Amino acid sequence: xxxxxxxxxxxxxxxxxxxxxxxxxxxxxxxxxxxxxxxxxxxxxxxxxxxxxxxxxxxxxxxxxxxxxxxxxxxxxxxxxxxxxxxxxxxxxxxxxxxxxxxxxxxxxxxxxxxxxxxxxxxxxxxxxxxxxxxxxxxxxxxxxxxxxxxxxxxxxxxxxxxxxxxxxxxxxxxxxxxxxxxxxxxxxxxxxxxxxxxxxxxxxxxxxxxxxxxxxxxxxxxxxxxxxxxxxxxxxxxxxxxxxxxxxxxxxxx
Length: 255
Hints:
By secondary structure, the protein is of the alpha+beta class. Helices cover 26% and strands 15% of the residues.
């Protein structure tokens, strides 16, 4: 799957989509477990009373299996580097379940994902080393088309972010500080939508600028966006002394 052409696509765009990485029967098991977590029924739109339900960690076996499909492990080895990241064998987390709704949630700003919380802080921070985050992934657990609130992605924006982060050094900065800066830095980039079929997985550069959007369709959208953590010896600086695709783009952006 990760041939030279696909790797160069990742280097250029900051993400690739792995089609049908999670088998359909496993997707169905995960979706059933997600519905059980919320006060809503799959066949009754009258029960869809919130525009978004956030679900945290799901440790059940189907989610652990979904996170460790061989095609995903191979992709992460190719992009992050073998031995530099931790497989999520205990499940996955961070599920924004979005529903068609008259209210639109105020969470659609352009941003990058944080990964650590400094002492005395409550929000997630990011630094130029991408400490505590090796990669962002987007797991589609339902079919997602243009009207189903697909994640918006600024194509190539991973190259705009390292110069923004450089000024904050190893300490980094919070999402509140960084979001308007990375928004401005990447505003010239074209936008792609993370659409696809249930079972597709987007493997994304940790500095890719992206945003949610309100749901204007007719069916719920179930998605997970788990962090891929660096292995213990690489947590502070996952891409130091590394020549893989992610490390290469960070160095190019800082040059």
